[in-house]
Amino acid sequence: MQKSEPYQPSGVQPAQVIPIVRGLLATPTGDPDVPWEPVVLKSIASKEALAFAGDQANAKGSHYPKPLTKGPKPPLFVTVPEQAVEPDAMRKQMQETIARFAAQHGGKPDIVCLRDLGILYIDHGQDGADLPLRNKVALVTGAAGAIGYGVCRGLLEKGCHVAATDLAGEKLDRFVADLSPMAPDRIIPVALDVTSKESVAAGFEAVIRTWGGIDLVVVNAGIAMVSALKEIDLEAFRKLEKVNVEGALLTLSATAHHFIGQGTGGDVVIISTKNVPSPGAGFGAYSATKAACHQLGRIASIELAPHGVRVNMVAPDAVFSEGKFKSGLWEEVGPDRMRARGLDEEGLQEYYRSRNLLKARVTGRHVANAVLFFATRQTPTTGATIPVDGGLPDATPR
After folding, report:
1. 29 and 165 share a domain?
2. Prediction pTM value
3. Is-catalytic flag, 7?
4. Cβ-based neighbour number of residue 279 at 10 Å
5. Which of 121, 149, 286, 352 is catalytic?
6. 163, 169, 261, 275: which has the highest count of C-beta atoms within 10 A?
7. How many whole angstroms separate alpha carbon 290 and alpha carbon 276?
8. Which contiguous run of DSSP H or E holds residue 245?
């Protein structure tokens, strides 16, 4: 992933330009662990905005498209090439343009007008907020479940803007509606199918158009099944492989392209599982495909480190529910586990609690805390795994 795939000329699209601008408007911090203070960069593409952005003479006027108002610095007007150019060349051109503006006006612009594309403006809504993830943007795949709920809620509490992605439908809508009261302007639902390259690209673009870019990707989408290897249905296995492996690969690929173009590093956290180091009988398809997903994360940590991107894994065990949302995995495999052990749902949860050393019931909040450890960059770490399982000796990496 160190090198981008050859750029395919197809005309410059907003989703190609906006992250570059966002990255260049970020403020260097001098902190090697968190080297950039990002901005939330909103877009206006109305007819009025397009007309305004098309004429630099508008900088001297007093009427700006809503919700913009005239500030001490004029807008920066940029003409984006009509033909597609290499991302590095575009970034260099933008960097030089913004540097000249900053030298002339005593700082970077708050408003950037892109001819034929619209207006970008910095949202200062979190100015002064003392939150570790303020102005950062996270995309969480497979969000509408127990782990996703804990992770999204934890990110919102730390000031993050969150794009909760999942398959389109009432479940995703309910999920975001449940979390919206705590931060109505910092969470959006994004319909995204991780098995479709086009859907992943569209999902990323939706987030970019809303907030300018992405700083954290949580790879959480996954499905499970129960079957002994001697009886496993090949098509069912392929379904798991498509979601758990190809879905992770497509997400990582899109993330790599985005982070490299944005130029301010980033973080990826993959929700792995204790089944990677310690698989169970009847769980071969899930264990094997999640192991492949985990390995992709380790490879990504090597390939993306030169770009300031950290990739880490969190390996939970038996998260049944969080808030109003149950684990999709346990809805799938729970009945089989209950029948095998002669237990009801509460008894099954107690079984998994009692088998770990700490006798702890693992929750989505616990998984979120591990994600936040990486997202807030508490240590200079990449390619690592945090177990969130209450202590399972068989699952200790070896």
Report:
1. no
2. 0.92
3. no
4. 18
5. 286
6. 163
7. 7
8. none
